[in-house]
Amino acid sequence: MRCLAKDVITAAGENKAGAEIEVSGWVHRIRELGGITFVVLRDRSGILQVVLSEDLAGAGKLTPESVIRVTGVPALNEKAPGGAELRAVSLEIISRAAPDLPYQVNGDIARTGLETILDNRILSLRNPKIRAIFKVQAVIIEAFSAYLRDRDFTEIKTSKIVGSGTEGGTELFEVDYFDRKAYLAQSPQFYKEVMVASGLERVFEVAPAYRAEKHDTPRHLNEYVSLDVEMGFIESEKDLIDLEKGLLAHIFDQVARKNAGELALWNASVPEPDSVAGAPIIPYGEALKIANDEAAAAKKTGGASGGRIFDINPEAERFICAWAGREYGVELAFVNEFPRRYRPFYTYPLDTGGAASLTMSFDALFRGLEITTGGRRQHDYNAFLETLPKFGLKPEDFTGYLSLLKYGCPPHGGFAVGCERLTQKILGLANVKEASLFPRDRKRVEP
Amino acid sequence: MRCLAKDVITAAGENKAGAEIEVSGWVHRIRELGGITFVVLRDRSGILQVVLSEDLAGAGKLTPESVIRVTGVPALNEKAPGGAELRAVSLEIISRAAPDLPYQVNGDIARTGLETILDNRILSLRNPKIRAIFKVQAVIIEAFSAYLRDRDFTEIKTSKIVGSGTEGGTELFEVDYFDRKAYLAQSPQFYKEVMVASGLERVFEVAPAYRAEKHDTPRHLNEYVSLDVEMGFIESEKDLIDLEKGLLAHIFDQVARKNAGELALWNASVPEPDSVAGAPIIPYGEALKIANDEAAAAKKTGGASGGRIFDINPEAERFICAWAGREYGVELAFVNEFPRRYRPFYTYPLDTGGAASLTMSFDALFRGLEITTGGRRQHDYNAFLETLPKFGLKPEDFTGYLSLLKYGCPPHGGFAVGCERLTQKILGLANVKEASLFPRDRKRVEP
Predict the structure, then answer these.
(1) Between B27, B194, B446, which is nearest A125 by CB?
(2) What is the tens place of the pLDDT at every residue in A163-214?
(3) Do B74 and B153 fall into the same domain?
(4) Do B362 and B408 reside in the same domain of the chain?
(5) pLDDT at A67
(6) Total domain count, chain B
(7) Which of A69, A122, A166 to mutate to test the interface with B (most CBs of B within 10 A)?
């Protein structure tokens, strides 16, 4: 019966009779000292010091990353990691790692470049600090789903192969689909809306999304995990912002509870869940002013280039979050009421005295990065039809949307959270690619 | 404050003062009777009878599928569905459906062909019986994930764009990936194994999988949702079968608890969760004999063509499940020890006295359909290298696998449950396409 590394201290504390236990895992580190071999064993629960005497069969053949099974007697030892160690009685090498390890799994990743980490992804994912990223990501997905299910949202799974792009034909990956061309979905936008109008009213999806964008920046992936939400019977984007605040607070709470070890490895912390409700909601124009005021102040202290900011670009995102952190105690801000030119054509207009140049839309900015885009959608058939030519679009390219809206569609809207971006910002990763198990960029489709 | 249809009976029972409530939803059905309009209103919670007097503004303009908001006084009425109705005081048509509805949402889907249902997917998904399929599917996914998380499995999200196929180059959809060719992943097989060996040890993934197969059968989809599991430190495929039994029992339990209404609509039921543990595990050779014995018996009563069955084909799957239902009280059977020629090259050999022509592999058959394929994988570097040429494969095409196994990999294995197939068999759907929101087949990439 296998014992996990994290449970050895309990076994050691209870073990007065010197009973043997069995552990299995990877050889994380080997140190020889006066005829004794100290092995740090790594398993899914953590690490454990194993003490092997010189004469133990197999002890001399160990290599880093070998998978071993050890039986031995657990003993308390304050100096050992976790406060206990295992004094080996027998050793089995289940899978001996070749000694020419091309990547040092137990090394300090701060000293390794990102390209090296990604080129050696099969091995670099074994590094406890790197693996921790994906333990956090799993909790984000779990918390996202649980929060929405509790509020009567239904999980959906929609097709990623689509006949055409909802946002026009650019930046789509083309798929050779039998004897025709198809595309990889940029978002489940249309399908989410169909499912709201199907009567499910409230839906969410966790699935890959694709952008055939050529830029290579620390904030872009060509394939990412999109945490999508859509709900019916809303009044404005403010209903969505309220929902997202509750959702983020729950995610932060769950990560704090379940990922304490992972956060510690990265010297990271999540915002206080209670602080999220107080995150400011800033209309676009005001947000731009805040960004410029912050930029001007930063220039005085030499902290910014000082150029004027004309839209909510990455620099503005950083300034607005820093301002929100100072003024509201949380580096999270919702910018809403984006001008029409920045949003998809189906975004619902904001009626402010006739000038419909603003929209019921929003972005969520967290720790200097846009993690969410969302808004209310146009649900009125005639208004949708009238909008198309203003964007140079033709009704015949939107037959799906038109039949969706023509036969009874409630007011609705939604948003998507970029899963890797949220992971990145929770842990303070320099590049979003670090938060993708097998990131896809212009050069990389392997492993 | 909106009241859901399902809560109106409570409101009616408590309402002695005649207080008004508000409901919203779709016009499911309209019936005129002696100057009164009876509307069946549909929302995410169910249906509700709404009584509109002739003189109520807007009552004459209602069309099926319009979205409306009604305020009125709830009243108990034994004859109304759910035992209560709403006597309307005011009506607002939020989104009036055009009267030329191309698909009758409130019709009997048994009278509609599958092609018509799929051609009108945007509207047919509104049919309560069709929508119910996806309420069940959501619970399957939730239960699958929860059961595994409780057992220390970590959810992963792996790339669906891959540089090459792990099972060889056939039946892959090609993607135009910047200036090179890439493919849509047939399964997360390799990535699951990488994550087991990363030290996570136990992982699961819920994600799309792709098969560029040309056949059009009631059991195939070109894109499906794969419920994938992989775990380290197993002895044989029997550890995996044990895990899947627990998993299926939990899924059946959750569907029975959470989808009672949906099951009733389909006149369906799940197996008793307690019966799952008793499902037989039948070695391949024995399974083939059972199938042939059943076929011979069925021939006598005129229930089968009577031809000899040479492998576990769809006919054999039906016979084996019927046999298991009769002999073990559950139409579920695990067939294991498949001959090598039926399984992928990386399947672990079964050591039975030197003849390694059988493998540590299994299928799960449920109600006459294969819903799972799985097995232990080869984790030994040298054995893997030796296997490749026997399958006509070259080491240079498996550099990822080789570096995975070369540097310490525990014994491991896993399986995948086809989400749509499980949904299909729980509800008794004739075709697996019915269990996919937006099914993809040779002809269909829209909507």
Answers:
(1) B194
(2) 986 555 568 999 999 989 999 999 999 999 999 999 999 999 999 999 999 8
(3) no
(4) yes
(5) 98
(6) 2
(7) A122
Side-by-side strand order, sheet with A281-283: A154-155, A202-210, A223-232, A412-418, A369-377, A361-366, A332-336, A281-283
Cross-chain Cβ contact B437/A195 below 8 Å: yes
Task: List CB contacts (< 8 A) between A411 and chain B.
Answer: 94
Q: Name the average pLDDT for chain B.
A: 94
Q: Are B401 and B346 in contact (CB under 8 A)?
A: yes
Per-residue pLDDT, A306: 66
DSSP state letter for A34: T
Look up tokens 């006598």; give the residue. B300
Q: Evaluate the CA torsion angle B177, B183, B187, B188 in order and state its sign.
A: negative
Provide the pLDDT confidence category of residue A60 given band limits of 50, 70 and 90. Answer: confident
Do A90 and A141 sit in the same domain of this protein?
Answer: no
Are B194 and B244 in the same domain?
A: yes
Residues 6+ apart with CB under 8 A from A342: A311, A361
Q: How far is residue A372's CA from residue A393's CA, in Å, rounded to a whole number?
A: 26
Q: Is the pLDDT of residue B189 over 90?
A: yes
Sheet holding B369-377, edge to edge: B154-155, B202-210, B223-232, B412-418, B369-377, B361-366, B332-336, B281-283
**Long-range contacts (CB closer than 8 Å, 24 or more residues apart) made by B402-406:** B403/A102, B403/A122, B403/A123, B404/A122, B404/B190, B404/B193, B404/B194, B404/B197, B405/A95, B405/B378, B405/B379, B405/B380, B405/B381, B406/A97, B406/A98, B406/B381
How confident is the model over B314-329, as a mean pLDDT?
Answer: 97
pLDDT digit string (tens) for B383-432? 999 999 988 999 998 999 999 999 999 999 999 999 999 999 999 999 99
A149 and A70 housed in the same domain: no
Q: CA nearest B423: which of B278, B209, B227?
A: B227
| pLDDT greater at residue A308 or residue B167 | A308
CB contact under 8 A, A125 and B198: yes
Domain residues for the domain of A36 are 5-95
Q: Pick B199's closest partner by Cβ from A131, A184, A197.
A: A131
Global pTM? 0.97
Separation of alpha carbons B433 and B445, rounded Å: 13
Reduce the DSSP state of residue A446 to 3 states and report it. coil
pLDDT over 70 at B356, yes or no? no
CATH number at residue B142: 3.30.930.10
Confidence of residue B23 (pLDDT cuts 50, 70, 90): very high
A408 to B26: CB separation less than 8 angstroms, yes or no: yes
Average pLDDT estimate for B40-58: 93
Confidence at residue B421, expressed as pLDDT on a 0 to 100 scale: 98
